[in-house]
Known about the structure:
Elements: E1 10-13, E2 16-26, E3 33-40, E4 47-50, H1 62-65, E5 71-76, E6 90-92, E7 100-102, H2 107-113, E8 118-120, E9 126-128, H3 144-157, E10 165-171, E11 174-181, H4 184-195, E12 202-209, H5 210-222, E13 231-237, E14 240-246, H6 250-261, E15 268-273
Parallel strand pairs: 1-7, 11-12, 14-15
Antiparallel strand pairs: 1-2, 2-3, 2-6, 3-4, 5-6, 8-9, 10-11, 13-14
Amino acid sequence: MATTPSERPVVLCPDGPLGLVENRVVSPRTGQLVRLVVALAWQPNRFLLVPPEWITEDGGRWMVDRGLSDQGPGTRDQGPGASAEEPGATVHRPPSTVHVVRLSRTRAEALALALPLHRRTADGWLRPVPWEPVPEPPAHQPDDAALAEAVRAALAADSLTADGAIEVAVEHGVATLTGRVRTAAGAFQARKLALEVPGVWHVENDTLADESLLVQIRQRHLVEPALAAAHIAVEVDLGRVTLRGTVPDPEAARLAVELARSIPGVSTVTAHFD
């Protein structure tokens, strides 16, 4: 399975990554960008509001000029502590077609000159927080190839992930994990292990767990009236599905296979029915 870049663009300063684009605030009157909401690297649940003037001409001008209609939760930036300067501004999630936004300011300048740091509260809004020191990035940031190798080594050494088929890509310190694991615990552990590698500051975990596929296939079979008389055992091996048991007729066998194939993430289906 091919690896894909993070769906949230990485925000790069001249001296390194600032964070990820969480969303963007757009004027309802002009359709122009008001602020980028950036989730800061190396500081969980801290956000910086970045003005569009800092985006370089070759580093993501689509953020300023292109109108988008895909809205995420909390689409209106209003109420106490609202972070948009313009009432009624709409918050848009970024697309997955552009993966890097470059700024003209250094990381230190961005932290000093942007609007105050914000934190997402339980109600889903971004609220300003008192000034506090922001952790510095590592003094020596390994290159992405070295980080990817370190993540692979960590995955290979852990019992929950060693028998999976996980592909690793790292770009600007953001690790993307794709492929297969046996269990949901393995998927969770894969993300944890990647984050523990010094230099990795964010993980996009797109691994698929066999456990999840098995549950979905069984649910599809159980709710299908035509399979009420069938007795089907389901096995999943890194996305490869095997069905065994008894079915009342050939049409039921065909339906059982088709339902299993319809589950996203299933690669092949083999049936052995009596």
